[in-house]
Amino acid sequence: MAKIQLHFNGNFSIKKEELNKILQAASEEKGLDDELENLMRRTSLGNAKVGRIKSWAIRAGLVKNNHLSPEGEIIWRIDPLLESIITETTPIGLTIEKTYYSELI
Predict the structure, then answer these.
(1) Contacts for 33 with CB less than 8 Å, ≥ 6 apart
(2) Distance from first CA to last CA of the chain, Å, rounded?
(3) Could you report the per-residue pLDDT of 60-101, keeping only the tens digit for each?
(4) How far is residue 79 CA from its own chain's centroid?
(5) Distances from the Cα of 78 to the Cα of 46, 69, 84, angstroms
(6) Which long-range CB contacts under 8 A does 5-11 form with residues at least 24 apart?
(7) pTM of this structure
């Protein structure tokens, strides 16, 4: 299982709606392995945000090799809108309780 870690970059807060757009793109056949302009179009995120949120999703262990990681797939399947308190986006970052999700599989 991936080691979940938190790293902030850029000068904006992570919003679950924006993270959801990156996870949606990662769940598609092409994943995040796409030109910047296409990722911007597919996610409706601007130039500065698309790369940073993609990087954040990778560092959080939700994306691996431009597609959803096993943990990302679980979250995408169970809570794609990131509404659960388990995946709630907070000022200190995304909280993921792996043991909770592993029990739901």
Answers:
(1) 66
(2) 14
(3) 889 999 999 998 998 899 888 888 776 664 433 444 444 444
(4) 12
(5) 27, 14, 9
(6) 5/59, 5/60, 5/61, 6/59, 6/60, 6/92, 6/93, 6/94, 7/56, 7/59, 8/56, 8/93, 9/52, 9/55, 9/56, 10/48, 10/49, 10/52
(7) 0.73
